[in-house]
């Protein structure tokens, strides 16, 4: 296997300010025949936009789950913002995640009975740091509305709508605003554009990146569509950074 390190053009400087560093990480989903993977080295520089690509079922979402502490490696080092997540308890990882990560899930995971605004402001209930940042320019509601408008969903019209009544594209904007509110340092996005046509995909990425830049956030996005890579600083193929293992207890 080749061990590849994600690095932007100014590699030395970026490495010094990397937001994620993974080294010799091993993980296996439970069960004797569970899928496992091993990541030798992976570095996400601060403020970088990185696209992680690979065929379906090869472990892209699993890498994202490891990276943001939803699951824990069995061995190795996983450093995020200078904190080794492998040393944190499950609940400490949960607190750490909401503070430092904005996550756009593949199916968006919006609260179906909450309003658009309820959904966008949800992370602020769990992170006082993000709540403080979100209120810097006024109120947190004003910031939620600003993000929705900026991402292409008219807040005046939709703020109090139930998210269950929104189109997929509209839900995607709500999920993105929820990830961005309070300026977490890392935005993780799992195939958020797969339901859109190419023009809408690219337009959405432009809006997402403009807000991520404003917040100073790095973005790591997973997709099986390598052509989206032209919008990113770096495209990384999953098999460049990790090997998958099935059915043995090696990992
Ligand atoms: N929650 C889970 N429990 C057990 N095994 C899982 C779980 N999630 C994923 N897996 C296993 O991990 C393998 C990799 O899945 P993963 O979702 O990471 O791949 P992917 O590359 O993101 O796929 P896709 O592009 O289809 O979303 C799957 O084949 C499955 O066997």
From TrEMBL:
Q: Report the GO molecular function annotations.
A: ATP binding; ATP hydrolysis activity; transmembrane transporter activity
Mind telling me which SMART domains this protein's record contains?
AAA
The family database entries (CDD domains) matched by this protein are listed as: ABC_MJ0796_LolCDE_FtsE
Cite the ABC transporter domain residue spans from the record: 20-251
Could you name the domain of life of the organism this protein comes from?
Answer: Bacteria
Keywords from the named record: ATP-binding, Nucleotide-binding, Transport
Q: Which GO terms describe its cellular component?
A: plasma membrane
- List the InterPro entries hit by this protein, alphabetically: AAA+_ATPase, ABC_transporter-like_ATP-bd, ABC_transpr_LolD-like, MacB-like_ATP-bd, P-loop_NTPase
Protein name stated in the entry: ABC transporter, ATP-binding protein
Source organism phylogeny: Bacteria, Pseudomonadati, Pseudomonadota, Alphaproteobacteria, Hyphomicrobiales
């Amino acid at each position: 296997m080749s061990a590849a390190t994600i690095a932007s053009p100014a590699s030395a400087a970026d490495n010094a300010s990397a937001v994620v560093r993974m080294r010799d990480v091993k993980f296996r989903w439970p069960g004797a025949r569970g899928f496992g993977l091993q990541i030798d080295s992976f570095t996400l520089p601060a403020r970088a936009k990185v696209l992680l690509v690979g065929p379906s079922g090869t472990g892209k979402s699993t890498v994202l789950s490891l990276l943001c502490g939803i699951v824990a490696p069995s061995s190795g080092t996983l450093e995020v913002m200078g904190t080794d997540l492998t040393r944190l308890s499950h609940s400490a990882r949960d607190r750490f995640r909401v503070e430092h990560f904005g996550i756009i899930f593949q199916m968006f995971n919006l609260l179906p009975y909450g309003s658009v605004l309820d959904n966008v402001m949800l992370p602020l209930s769990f992170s006082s740091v993000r709540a403080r940042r979100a209120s810097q320019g006024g109120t947190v509601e004003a910031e939620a509305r600003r993000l929705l408008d900026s991402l292409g969903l008219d807040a005046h019209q939709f703020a109090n709508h139930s998210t269950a009544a929104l189109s997929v594209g509209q839900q995607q904007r709500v999920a993105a605003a929820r990830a961005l509110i309070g300026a977490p340092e890392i935005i993780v996005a799992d195939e958020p554009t797969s339901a859109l046509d190419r023009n809408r995909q690219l337009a959405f990425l432009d809006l997402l990146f403009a807000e991520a830049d404003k917040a100073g956030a790095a973005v790591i996005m997973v997709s099986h569509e390598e052509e989206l890579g032209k919008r990113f600083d770096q495209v990384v193929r999953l098999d460049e950074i990790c090997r998958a293992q099935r059915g043995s207890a090696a990992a």
